[in-house]
Amino acid sequence: MGLWRTTISQDCKTSRPHRDAVQPVSHRSHIRWSAFFRELGKRRVVQVALAYAGVSWLLIQVADTAVDAFDLPLWLLKLAFVILFLGFPIIIILTWVFDLGPRGLTASSEPRNLVTDSTDTQGTGTLCLLCAEIVGYEAVKASHSGEAENLLNYTYASIRPLLANCEGEFVKTLGDSIISTFRSPEQALSCALQVQHKLQHSGDLSIRISLHYGDCVRDGNLVAGDSVNECLHLGAVAEPGGIVVSESFRSQLDKNDPRSAGADWRQVSSEAPGTPSGFTLDPAAVRHAGECLVTAHPPPVPPATSHLPRRAKLLTSLALVLFLTGGFYFYKDYFSELINFEEVPSLAILPFANVTGDASLAYLSDGLTDELINLTSRIPSLRVASRTSTYALQGKSYNAEELGERLGVDFFLEGSVRKDRDRMRVLVRLFDIEKNNAIWSQTYDLSLEEFFRTREEIARKTLAHLQIPSGEVPSRLLADTPTRDPKAMEIFLKGQEILRKPATMESLAQAEQRFQDALLMDANFLEAEAGLCEVYLARYQITASDTRFKTAESQCQRIETRASNAIDGLLSLTEFYLEASRYERARHYAEQALQNDRYNARARMLLGELQSLQNRPQEALQNFSEARSLDPGHWETHYYLGRHYYRTGDYQLALDSFRKAVQLEPDSANPYTNLGAVLLSTYDFAGAAAAFDKAVAIAPTRGGYSNSGAMHYYLGNYDKAVNLYLEALQLAPDDARLWGNLADAYFRIPGKTRQAQGAYAKAIERARKSMLLKAPDVEELTSLSWYLLRAGDATEAAQILDRAIAQAPQDPDVLIQQGMMYLEKQQTRLALESFNQAIDNGYSYELLSVLPDIPEPVRANFRQ
Asked: Is residue 308 a contact partner of residue 316, using CB atoms and an 8 Å limit?
């Protein structure tokens, strides 16, 4: 229904590299600057340095403009410059150390031969050559040209790390051969053995290796001459998996290491013109020698998993130490503030007691409480508990320790208000919970007009006793007043008092009248305008009326250009745009509210709700958790966190959160409603019914009736479900989902087909009207597709479903509706695939199994 939503030795023990036998060719060694600069270019160090400099310049310009435009502190610009300056050596070192390639971020090989013989770079010199020929390459190339290139690339990738380990240099590929150079025959032979050992064990590639020692013409990395051709031709006499060496190579090898003469060399020759004679090792001898070599000296780990070179570790660590030390030295005070983020003072302003004896005057004490909360919450280095969490304690008795634990604060401010004719007596007391004593108290005797101005003095003295630096208390924040008309302020406070109670149509009408009266006295009273925005949005949420939505939209947009510093206005706008699914606007106002008050738990909750709706669960969880930490006594912080856990399928955590919300606010229907939803998802139908019944008893709303109706629908009590949906429609006749649910219930009752089709028609009509007012979300699209399908319009149902699939192709509700479409076309196999995919993506198997719209043979094949 619509609800579903080294060298050779005969003795392995003596097999070891003899690099001490390698002698320099001759001549004086010097730094190969050309190779060094080529290495810089290969690793893109110069490009990265230039790009970093350009981006840094741009960022400094942007930061400079922002500091001027938004009157930000100058130290932000200095901090940006220091971070970018100290970051430069880190970026250069990381660029030298790492390569970014198809295999991701990998450690670069150490640069080779930056200090070497001068004849190595250009001119004529004697080198050791290694040619690796791929066996069967030509056949592969003739049949599958693409595979030939892959084979060549794979061979090069297998050889490259072993070349680096033996200090070899890759020269080029030539047809089916890979050519490399070495400075000594020991290094070349060691590399050949390691390569063959590796490939023989992999079993998916076979190569012949030829080794030659002779004169070559060299220009940088390029090598040419007859020696290259002789090495290539020599490979023809080697067996697949074997190694062949020229006489010159064997002679040089024996000269450097006489022990190699004892190896199993077999002389070979070729009748092919230009092919030199040589000595070969068959694959078995190669395998034996390779095992001895690898046992004594394992080959290097490939670059993708290699460890950073020790030099790179030291350089990177040094750069990081310099960065942290420099940043801390220049901005130790700023970093100290960040480190001690959780150590900022925290304050709860408890509801001031109305000791007048007249309940109708409670708005005075509550109004003073609200204004003090609004003022102190604007101080960046002070965390203030929310209004909701403190008002939950009104009329209850708690000792200081219990208050500190429940609200998570260090201090609390309490007081009382007494009115005697036109005079007001206000008593205030600031209490240190850790010391368990009052640190400041004072009594004020005021006129009514003075009463509304005394909030500034109380706030300033409170901040002073909390040792908040005076430089962090801008005069304009405390001097701002919502209105200079005391009577308008008095009436506004009465409206605010009404809004704190559970919302009903009657209470909202009363609050609306208060705010309208306050605006008649002061047309620029922004907080009263924001109060109307909240009232109209609450009405829409109760009725789902299109007209109510337009009214709320019109009123909320009236305050957009004026709400930059009004927290309540910013939060009202955030909530409205969340309801309207205009997420960018909602994010803008939530972030603006946090700029004004970074410890505002409600702003964190709304931002988390936005991120949860945008399927950004980690960011959402961070904001919800922070909101709960900021205001643990506020039931809504637990409520919103529970809704997030419910969406992500963490039902036990959701239950814990909703039960905590119920404990903190037992007279609100919302926690019970969501508690019932989680219990339903855990298949505790009796528990869910009890929770929904409790919610309806507290507030008989369309949501309460609809949830109860859903329970009876799942239980098969369709007549009861119809009655409950009809009750809900009395409160919200424009709610498309209610009409759709009513139609679903009628559809299951024999003889009620006409009523079902009429209800589906109304659901379709109202869903289309709602989609004209605001961008439809995935749930609304899938619901409309379902109504259209039931009404017999499968074509438009498919079109609407395509829009939902485009938004969220893996959403479980979308997949279920897709399955319903397949069932309608009698494509049972495709329908079952969609239902199982929905289960894989988090939809409840048990809940899906009780939907009467899915045939039993299909349900029997669900994945559990």
From this structure: yes
Residue 459 vs residue 294, higher pLDDT: 459
In three-state secondary structure terms, 414 is strand
DSSP annotation of 617 reads: H
Question: How many whole angstroms separate alpha carbon 198 and alpha carbon 194?
Answer: 6
Q: Which of 749, 691, 695, 697 is nearest to 720 (CA)?
A: 749
**Residues 834-863: tens digit of each pLDDT:** 888 888 887 877 778 878 888 888 888 887
Within 13 Å, how many C-alpha atoms sit on residue 605's CB side? 23
Q: Average pLDDT, stretch 282-302?
A: 63
- Got the DSSP string for 173-206? EETTEEEEEESSHHHHHHHHHHHHHHHHHH-S--
Q: DSSP code of 863?
A: -
Dump strand ranges (E) for 370-422.
383-384, 411-420
Side-chain-side CA neighbours of 127 within 13 Å: the count stands at: 31
Query: Which residues on adjacent β-strands are paired with residue 418?
Result: 425
From residue 344, how far is each of 337, 601, 727 by CA, in Å?
Answer: 9, 16, 51
- Measured between alpha carbons, how far is 367 from 373 in angstroms, rounded to an integer? 10
Please write the tens of the pLDDT for every residue from 632-643.
Answer: 777 788 888 888
Tell me the per-residue pLDDT of 232-279, one tens digit each, with 9 for 90 and over. Answer: 888 888 888 888 988 888 888 888 766 565 566 788 776 656 566 788
CA distance linking residue 10 with residue 545, whole number of Å = 92
Question: What does the alpha-carbon distance between residue 88 and residue 789 come to, in Å, rounded to a whole number?
Answer: 61
From the list 95, 107, 109, 108, the residue with the least C-alpha distance to 50 is 95
677-681 contact pairs (CB < 8 A, 24+) = 677/646, 677/707, 678/642, 678/646, 678/651, 678/654, 679/655, 680/710, 680/711, 680/714, 680/847, 681/646, 681/651, 681/844, 681/847
Strand ranges for 256-410 from DSSP E: 266-268, 278-281, 346-349, 353-354, 383-384
What's the pLDDT score for residue 274? 58
- C-alpha closest to that of 857 among 838, 837, 829: 829
pTM over 0.85, yes/no: no
Average pLDDT over residues 136-152: 72
Tokens of 550: 């337009």
Mean pLDDT across 724-744: 89
Higher pLDDT, 701 or 191: 191
CB neighbour class for 300 (10 Å; exposed up to 12, middle 13-18, buried from 19): middle
Cα 122 versus chain centre, distance: 53
Residues 6+ positions from 801 with CB-CB distance below 8 Å? 781, 782, 785, 814, 817, 818, 821
Q: Which long-range contacts (CB under 8 A, 24 or more apart) does 831-838 make?
A: 831/858, 832/858, 832/861, 832/862, 835/862, 836/862, 836/863, 837/810, 838/812, 838/813
HSE value, Cβ hemisphere, 13 Å, CA-based, for 633: 23
Find all residues with CB under 8 Å of 818, minimum gap 6, and list them: 801, 805, 834
Tokens of 557: 């947009």
For residue 303, the 8-state DSSP code is: G
Reported as a single tens digit per residue, the pLDDT across 196-219 is 887 776 666 688 899 988 888 877
Residue 21 is given by DSSP the state: G
How many CB atoms are located within 10 Å of the residue 494 CB? Answer: 22
Decide if pLDDT at 757 tops 90: yes
Q: Which residues contact 170 (CB under 8 A, 6 or more apart)?
A: 156, 159, 160, 163, 178, 179, 180
Distance CA(164)–CA(110), nearest Å, equals: 8
What DSSP string describes 695-736?
Answer: HHHH---HHHHHHHHHHHHHHT-HHHHHHHHHHHHHH-TT-H
Q: Is the pLDDT of residue 3 over 60?
A: no
Q: 318: part of which helix (H) or strand (E)?
A: helix 310-330
Residues 6+ apart with CB under 8 A from 824: 789, 794
Task: Collapse the DSSP code of 765 into the 3-class scheme (helix H, G, I; strand E, B; otherwise coil) and give the result.
Answer: helix
